[in-house]
Design brief:
START_lipid-bd_dom; alpha+beta; 2 domains; Alpha-D-Glucose-1,6-Bisphosphate, Chain A, domain 4; mitochondrion; ten-stranded mixed sheet; lipid-binding; Steroidogenic acute regulatory protein, mitochondrial; 12 strands; single chain
């Protein structure tokens, strides 16, 4: 059974015009743009395009041989310019266009960088978070091959699929009777409080915040399956993005020197994973939540136990999240 991910948010079609390098396309807009003149932003005059390209090269350090090896600074300059160009472009991408752009072109980095200069390590974490988002959305975009693991009376559904070079992944599809902002508030802004309402999580701690969208976290999971699955912990980089009415929370395992492996706890790993939130079509006060779960629990565990634990973890999460949202008054939140 195909999920509502077939909504426009996950159609692999980008109906919005893109800014193009004047050198890459000197003869004018491409076929896609020429077919959609009513959406096309005004084209820069030729002399302004040349000046813009020269300014880009100057700021990015590519015009001076002695700064060409300063990769971190060049990278940030280029991304900052890309961010400003996107900001000044008329209109903006639709949710479907943006998600397709994330998955296909990896252009989100520019929107993460502010005026702060980041270290090479911080840039690496930002890039890793972006990679996790692209890979996870790529998995969700392929609708074929999903098998139903469980169907709850309230409509909650867990599906699974075996991905080459990744393994078995699980997908939770639920509708929550709360607006998107409430879920964002609980899952992102109050992430460290998850241990208070989700029994499968003992603790989540933010180890480092990089810019406004990227964090490094340490998560300690509780025992599962009647203690057959002992305590696990995870060190992950997480990236959060919103475009229009679509909000994506993504992450994957990373290395963080200040959080070495803990004694008596198995260090498990999140593969590329994500949650996609968007208002339910026709009912904006409700939220459609899709959770792609991809975990390597490590250790010696039978696959049957692993599959049972992971699918049940998703079902439990949805139930506990609903109870949490119902028990706490709504606070103003913004993605």
């Amino acid at each position: 059974m195909r999920s509502s991910l077939q909504l426009e948010a996950f159609k692999a079609q980008d109906a919005q015009p893109r800014l193009q390098d004047p050198e890459a396309n000197p003869d004018g807009p491409g076929e896609e743009q020429s077919q959609k003149h009513h959406h096309r932003p005004p084209r820069l005059p030729h002399h302004q395009g040349i000046m813009l390209l020269a300014t880009f090269k100057l700021c990015a350090g590519s015009s001076y041989r002695h700064v060409r090896n300063m990769k971190g600074l060049r990278h940030q300059a280029a991304l900052a310019i890309g961010q400003e160009l996107n900001r000044r472009a008329p209109g903006g991408p639709t949710p479907a266009a943006w998600i397709n752009q994330v998955r296909s072109h990896g252009s989100l980095l520019g929107s993460q960088l502010e005026d702060t200069l980041y270290s090479d390590q911080e840039l690496a974490y930002i890039q890793q978070g972006e990679e996790a988002m692209q890979r996870a959305l790529g998995i969700l975009s392929h609708q074929e091959g999903w098998k139903k693991e469980s169907q709850q009376a309230n409509g909650d559904e867990v599906l699974s699929k075996v991905i080459p070079d990744v393994g078995k992944v699980f997908r939770l599809e639920v509708v929550v009777d709360q607006p998107l902002e409430r879920l964002y508030e609980e899952l992102v802004e109050h992430m460290e409080a998850m241990g208070e309402w989700n029994p499968n999580v003992k603790e989540i701690k933010v180890l480092q915040k990089i810019g406004k969208d990227t964090v490094i976290t340490h998560e300690l999971a509780a025992e599962a399956a009647g203690n057959l699955v002992g305590p696990r912990d995870f060190v992950s980089v997480r990236c959060t993005k919103r475009r229009g009415s679509v909000c994506v929370l993504a992450g994957m395992a990373t290395h963080y020197g200040e959080m070495p492996q803990q004694k008596g706890v198995i260090r498990a790993e999140h593969g590329p994973t994500c949650m996609v939130l968007h208002p339910l079509a026709g009912s904006p006060s409700k939220t459609k939540l899709t959770w792609l779960l991809n975990i390597d629990l490590k250790g010696w565990l039978p696959k049957t136990i692993i599959n049972q634990v992971l699918s049940q973890t998703q079902v439990d999460f949805a139930n506990h999240l609903r109870k949490r949202l119902q028990s706490r008054p709504a606070l103003e939140a913004r993605c």
